[in-house]
């Protein structure tokens, strides 16, 4: 039996997808906003995690009537980073995250990370994943627009030498899945950021798994082979 | 025009429904569990908030393989309460919560509160609502089984002198809505605890509002009248 290996890549979101950090991000923003006198319900912050900071500010203006100038925006960002740092000891990789990446290495499937966060913030939690040094990591600093624009995933695919159409995007938020659709990649949702299955499916997820451990158990469903074709009868 | 006033009551959940406290509860449990050496993903804790503590322990056993004895359960509960207390300064009533209750007072609609939490924990946040002293408050201490069993809502309806079938249940979690169905009350979902609309509808919500402020804007949709019938032409 003959087979040609098709090239496939995986583009991972970071917070809520590989790292169990969404809720700490949420309460870090809540605290930073409160210090600016902005009372926004916690669930509304949760639903904005993973989207571009600029769009978050626009949503904030609509929902609270508060417009942020650049100085206040910078202060918010700095306080959020400080608050996140203070919660760092609580933050862990999600179950199966490290094992999933290691399985992809064994299967010869290239992958990259793409986050709407800044490199400075991502650097807090990235060490938890023990990544190979050559895994591409694209952050908000590298592109003009973060999610749900497709730029982050397009850049991550490019760093793998693939077109985004050849890639799966794995993410926990509707912003990941909208960005995946705009990049013409297939989206896979994980519930580990706190969104429910129905919301992820409605945003375009082709499959939804509980977390990386659950995705690892079902790699066959997304066409990842561990058995070399020449071993098959 | 003649009209008879139909008797209608409203049974409110507390955390995530009237008080913006779900995410603080989640991270308080996360911290308490970690101190017991139990690593459970944060989103999985989120999805258990509002259910009976005994069922939470059963779910924990399934998801982590850890069985809790009574002493460990007590220690967890105590540490959760302490961690919640340390987060109390961050906790606020949800937008519109106080105004919604006040509107119900004006419309002559009786209401009660019913929470799966213990009275001791509820007492931390209840003062934020400035309730009339005669508003019935039913806690986990008052019934044999908490949500999703119907006991809390049945007891709350009873305290209003109504059958649960005459009441709406307002809650943010699928446990509230399942308990509402079992009590044969109509369920109304609010998204302010972090569940999405689709999940709440699937769990039986007749209507879903963003939060108490949004529900207050739509009281007509659940048949609450502010105009006395004898003023109508």
Task: Report what the structure shows.
Two copies of one chain form a homodimer. Chain A is α/β, with parallel strands linked by helices and 233 residues long. In chain A, 41% of the residues lie in helices and 11% in strands. Chain A has a six-stranded parallel beta sheet. In chain A, strand 5, helix 9 and strand 6 form a beta-alpha-beta unit. The longest helix of chain A has 17 residues, at 70-86. At the A-B interface, helix 1, helix 2 and helix 9 of A face helix 1, helix 2 and helix 9 of B.
Q: Percent helix among the residues of chain A?
A: 40-55%
Uncertain segments of chain A: none
Radius of gyration of chain A: 18 Å
* Rough outline of chain A: globular
Distance between the termini of chain A: 7 Å
Computed structural class of chain A = alpha/beta
Please provide the ordered H/E string of secondary-structure elements of chain A.
Answer: EHHHHHEHEHEHEHEH
Strands across the major sheet of chain A, in which order? 3-2-1-4-5-6
Q: What's the multimeric state?
A: homodimer
Largest interface: A-B, 29 and 29 residues
Share of β-strand residues of chain A: 5-15%
Find the count of extended strands of chain A (DSSP E, 2+ residues).
6
Mean pLDDT of chain A: 92
What's the number of helices of chain A? 10
Main sheet of chain A, how many strands, which sense, barrel? 6 strands, parallel
